[in-house]
Amino acid sequence: MTDDLTALTIKEAARLLRLGSISSADLVTAHVERIERLDPHVKAYLRLTPEIWERQADEADRRIRRGDAPPLAGIPLAVKDVLCVRGVETTAGSQILRGFKPPYTATAVSRLFDAGAVMLGVTNCDEFAMGSSTENSGYFPTRNPWDLDRVPGGSSGGSAAAVAAGEAIIALGTDTGGSIRQPAALCGVVGMKP
């Protein structure tokens, strides 16, 4: 059942959550187990955020039961390491920012939280989002989940790889010169420039 849950589309997952066939906690657990199994090879994530996903999944399940859930309630989300989340280490893929924990959450992330998304963790990227392969992270290169000898593209390669590997249903990236669209294409997922 775990792999079945990680293969759901956002529409399928939202429908099953609303019907009560699955819980947000079930969906998060399935994705976290998949991350634990695959991410040592793919390396899409820099860090996981269990303190956030536990709270957000519980809240999503409560709101779904009450019937006042927002549209993304319970949907597992990955966030690129250039987008700030209050209290979560944010380094833009660079060792120079190691330990920085912002006092605020980026507007794009806040809007997804308000819509009910559940943050699983922070994804890898090229250092300061300056690259197109996610090989130039200050931490480690991310691999394309379809072929570990290939790159996922960049700079939002960790976000695209996480979705392609079934390690998140949706992911947030950033795009100035193709940094969402190119990794999405290389990983076989949908990416939209904001």
- Give the beta-strand count: 4
CATH superfamily heading? Amidase signature (AS) domain
Spatial strand sequence of the major β-sheet: 1-3-2-4
Largest sheet: 4 strands, mixed
Q: If classified by CATH, what would the architecture be? A: Alpha-Beta Complex
Task: State the CATH topology.
Answer: Amidase signature (AS) enzymes
- State the distance separating the first and last CA atoms: 34 Å
Oligomer class: single chain
- CA radius of gyration: 15 Å
Order of helices and strands: HHHEHEHEHEH
Shape: globular
Count the DSSP helices: 7
Low-confidence residue ranges: none
Count of the domains:
1
What does this molecule look like?
The structure is a single chain. By secondary structure, the chain is an alpha/beta fold. It has a single domain, classed as Amidase signature (AS) enzymes (Alpha-Beta Complex). Helix content is about 40%, strand content about 10%. It has 7 helices and 4 strands; from the N terminus they run αααβαβαβαβα. Strands 1-3-2-4 form a 4-stranded mixed sheet, with helices on both faces.
